[in-house]
Model the fold of this input.
Amino acid sequence: MITVLGEAVVELVETAERGVYRAHPGGSPLNVAVGLARLGQPTTLLARLSGDAFGGMFRRRLAGSGVDLSRLVDAPEPTGARWAPPAAPRCATSTRALSPHSSTRRPWSPR
Done:
């Protein structure tokens, strides 16, 4: 069993419609765990995941890819997010609390 240690973050990706963002499960450790499991390697992710809707999104992605969820830790903190405008050479990270029920039509920027 391969254990991947790290974080999972929401990646806010701007759609073709300017100012509209789509949330995707991301973060290098989560992506590595998913990739290893899809390649048939027994894999688990050791990470803290929020109990919010984004934490549920992470759990569904991991389970659907065959990652063992037994090492996940339930966390009360809100999910962190990473956002990058299309022309940005790098990403900005924020721990700003996100609500899956808030409007995605307003521009979002890290605090």
User: Anything to note?
Assistant: The helical segments are 28-38, 53-64. Confidence is low (pLDDT under 50) at residues 102-111. Residues 2-86 form a domain with the UDP-N-acetylmuramoyl-L-alanine:D-glutamate ligase fold (CATH 3.40.1190.30). DSSP finds two helices and eight strands in the chain.
